[in-house]
Every structure is written in structure tokens, then in C-alpha cells.
């Protein structure tokens, strides 16, 4: 089944002295790009975090926030970093001044910032590492679940659109079933008008047949139908297919362009215009598929 690159997840893990929270936000990207933010105290595990995320999520730009908060501070002054409190209060004053805000700073404005709480020295690094991994696992589970749900919705929409293209290919094939012979007769009639009835000979017929073959779109229709079939098959396999779907849509677009340039049938031209619109919509959708 298809899976989207868009997702959000949050995981928490609480130990004796602290709670580690991991937030993941995933958006579209050609590769798997992991961006770590606010991971103070976890820098030594950056590479490990990246490997775990890349192994699980495969594609997308994933923003990672890792935070640790002391447990049961309950306003205990011994758990506050007073230097951080002063700096944060000073920063708020500067913001007020530049923004022209008269509202006084409230205690709640300060307490809402986790950076003012001192990290308890008794936290063991190994315990912190375990908490981080557990929180990361929870966040990944949520992201994967959200990506899967989004993928189901995308799959329904994409299936509906690709079926439209399939129907349009059938219509084109019906309209062009005797296209080569019709083109031959038209060219032959026109040639007679231009050079007279005396031009009836094998060489002329041979040249006209070659010209009419160049206007035949049966091969393009077969390839287009094949691409549609492959595209449909990829929608139901359980592996990353986004890049393959995008490639097939490029090929569909190329075949439709060739059909448009070779065919002089007005009805076929109208169908191709609609088909190109559907292909373009599909390409936009596929950009979000893993």
C-alpha cells in the first residue's frame, strides 16, 4: 500500500528523574534528510538517531526535536537555573520594548520555558539514552501510522484518476483503430489531385504507406496502456514506489504528447487535453508518496 511522506509523531518516556520527549515532523523530500533541533544533551547520539529514523521512514525531510524535563519540580527553587531565569526575563523585556508591548511580564511567561529548570545531576547517561530511544520509538510509531492513513487517502484518489486515464486510452484506441488506412486513402486522394491519375503506381503507394505509418498512433497507445497497467500494479505493492510512479507518469506524458502531435483527429485531441490534466494532477499527488 502507498505511504505518504507527510506525518507527525510525539513520544514520551519518563524515568526516575526526568521525562524525555521526542517530536518528529515529516514533509516531502526527494531523499531522507533528518534535521535535528533542540537536542541539547543528546548530541552524542545524533548519528544513531539519524540511522534509526532513516531506516524506518525511508524518504522525506524529518525535523526532530528532543527535549528533557526534570520530573516533579513542583516549583522547587532548587530545581531552577536562576541565571537562565534572568536571561529569559531580560529577553522578554527586550521583546516588549521592540514590539511596543505594555503588558507586564507574568510568572507564567517564565515558568513555561523548560530551559529555566536545571538538569538534575543524578541522571545517568545510560538511563537518559534508554529514555530517548523509547521516546523516539513512540514518535516513529505515530509518524508511520499517520503516513499510512494519509497514504490510503492518496491511494483512493490516485486510483480514481489513473482509471480515468485507462478509459481515455481505450477511447483513443477505438477512434484510431483504422487510422493508418484512413490516412493512406486521404494522402492517396490528395496525391491524385496534385499530380493526376497517371501517378497510380507501386512506388507512389509505397511512399504514401510510409507517410501514413508515421501518422499511426497504435504503438503509442500500446505503450501508454502498458504504463497505466504498471502504474496500477505499483499501487498495491508493499514497498516504496514513489519514484517509480513519478517515472511512469513522465512516460505517460511523453506518449500523450506524441499522440497529440501525430493525430489529426479532433476527438482524440480533446481526449489528450483532458489526459494531460489528469497526468499533471497525478504528478502533484505522487510527489508526496514514499
Chart the SSEs and their pairings.
Elements: E1 7-14, E2 18-27, E3 32-37, H1 46-57, E4 60-70, H2 82-99, H3 107-111, H4 125-175, H5 179-195, H6 202-214, H7 218-234, H8 242-262, H9 266-286
Parallel strand pairs: 3-4
Antiparallel strand pairs: 1-2, 2-4
Model description:
There is one protein chain. This protein is α+β, with helices and mostly antiparallel strands. Among the domains are: 81-116, no CATH class; 149-286, no CATH class. Helix content is 60%, strand content 12%. The protein is built from nine helices and four strands, in the order βββαβαααααααα. The protein has helices spanning 46-57, 82-99, 107-111, 125-175, 179-195, 202-214, 218-234, 242-262, 266-286, and strands at 7-14, 18-27, 32-37, 60-70. The chain has a four-stranded mixed β-sheet with strand order 1-2-4-3. It is elongated, with a radius of gyration of 32 Å.
> Radius of gyration over alpha carbons?
32 Å
- Strand numbers in spatial order across the main sheet: 1-2-4-3
Give average pLDDT, whole number.
84
Number of strands: 4
Task: Give the topology string: H per helix, E per strand.
Answer: EEEHEHHHHHHHH
Residue stretches low in confidence (pLDDT < 50, at least 5 long) are none
Percent helix range: 55-70%
Major sheet attributes: 4 strands, mixed
Amino acid at each position: 500500500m502507498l505511504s505518504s511522506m507527510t506525518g507527525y509523531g510525539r513520544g514520551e518516556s519518563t524515568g526516575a528523574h526526568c521525562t524525555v520527549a521526542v517530536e518528529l515532523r515529516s514533509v516531502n523530500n526527494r531523499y531522507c534528510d533528518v534535521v535535528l533541533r533542540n537536542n541539547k544533551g543528546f548530541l552524542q547520539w545524533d548519528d544513531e538517531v539519524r540511522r534509526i529514523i532513516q531506516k524506518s521512514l525511508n524518504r522525506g525531510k524529518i525535523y526532530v526535536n528532543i527535549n528533557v524535563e526534570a520530573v516533579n519540580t513542583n516549583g522547587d527553587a532548587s530545581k531552577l537555573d536562576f541565571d537562565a531565569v534572568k536571561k529569559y526575563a531580560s529577553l522578554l523585556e527586550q521583546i516588549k520594548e521592540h514590539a511596543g508591548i505594555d503588558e507586564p511580564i507574568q510568572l507564567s511567561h517564565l515558568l513555561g520555558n523548560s530551559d529555566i529548570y536545571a538538569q538534575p545531576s543524578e541522571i545517568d547517561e545510560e538511563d537518559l539514552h534508554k529514555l530517548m530511544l523509547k521516546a523516539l520509538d513512540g514518535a516513529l510509531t505515530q509518524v508511520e501510522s499517520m503516513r499510512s492513513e494519509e497514504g490510503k487517502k492518496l491511494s483512493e484518489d490516485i486510483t480514481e484518476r489513473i482509471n480515468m486515464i485507462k478509459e481515455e486510452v481505450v477511447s483513443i484506441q477505438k477512434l484510431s483503430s483504422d487510422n493508418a488506412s484512413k490516412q493512406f486513402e486521404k494522402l492517396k486522394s490528395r496525391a491524385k489531385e496534385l499530380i493526376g491519375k497517371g501517378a497510380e503506381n507501386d512506388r507512389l503507394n509505397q511512399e504514401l504507406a510510409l507517410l501514413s505509418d508515421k501518422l499511426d498512433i497504435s504503438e503509442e497507445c500500446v505503450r501508454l496502456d502498458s504504463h497505466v497497467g504498471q502504474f496500477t500494479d505499483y499501487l498495491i505493492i508493499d514497498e516504496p514506489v514513489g519514484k517509480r510512479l513519478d517515472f511512469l507518469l513522465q512516460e505517460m506524458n511523453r506518449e500523450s504528447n506524441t499522440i497529440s502531435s501525430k493525430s489529426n483527429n479532433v476527438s482524440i485531441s480533446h481526449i489528450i487535453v483532458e489526459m494531460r490534466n489528469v497526468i499533471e494532477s497525478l504528478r502533484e499527488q505522487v510527489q508526496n508518496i514514499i
